[in-house]
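lol forgot to send this yesterday, sorry. struct tokens for the thing we talked abt
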């Protein structure tokens, strides 16, 4: 087995030993329930808090997709945060799911664009499509069905907020 670089940021309970008896290192596991991969990608547990989850690449992508980091902020504030995160974040890929340029070219606010992304819908989706997609997602991701699953919870919350933003559309 190849040598795995040690993660400097300790303090989370799930670990596994890797390597030969000569060079054993302990690495952090992905925090997604049941995932046995390395958790190299930090993602904030909640907005503006230092606590982080550590996920594998697949799960951080899934988590970030559902993550509505900008909930509760005005669009201008959200843009500032997005820019700051894009400069500093490692692993947390807000920048890749957030458009900075010509934010109003399609007549949508950043909140609305973010909401379409959280529901995985094109911005051309109709009100009926938005409603159907939200109901399907809410059923799949409901915390009662996914106890202890941080990814499902984040996506459920993001989908709920996204629906609040978009539900008035026709
Ligand atoms: Zn994982």
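and heres what i got for the seq, position by position
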């Amino acid at each position: 087995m190849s040598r795995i670089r040690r993660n400097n940021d300790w303090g989370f309970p799930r670990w596994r030993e890797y390597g030969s008896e000569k060079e054993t290192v302990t690495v952090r596991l992905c925090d997604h329930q049941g995932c046995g991969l390395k958790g190299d990608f930090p993602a904030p547990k909640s907005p503006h808090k230092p606590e982080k989850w550590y996920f594998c690449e697949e799960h951080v992508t899934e988590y970030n997709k559902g993550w509505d980091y900008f909930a509760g902020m005005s669009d201008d504030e959200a843009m500032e945060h997005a820019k700051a995160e894009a400069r500093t974040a490692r692993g947390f890929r807000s920048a890749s799911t957030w458009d900075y340029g010509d934010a109003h070219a399609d007549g949508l606010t950043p909140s609305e664009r973010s909401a379409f992304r959280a529901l995985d819908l094109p911005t051309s989706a109709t009100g009926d499509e938005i409603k159907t997609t939200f109901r399907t997602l809410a059923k799949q991701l409901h915390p009662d069905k996914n106890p202890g699953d941080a990814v499902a919870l984040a996506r459920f919350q993001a989908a709920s907020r996204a629906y609040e933003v978009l539900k008035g559309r026709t």
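Helices lie at 57-66, 75-88, 110-118, 127-141, 150-166. anyway ping me if u want another try
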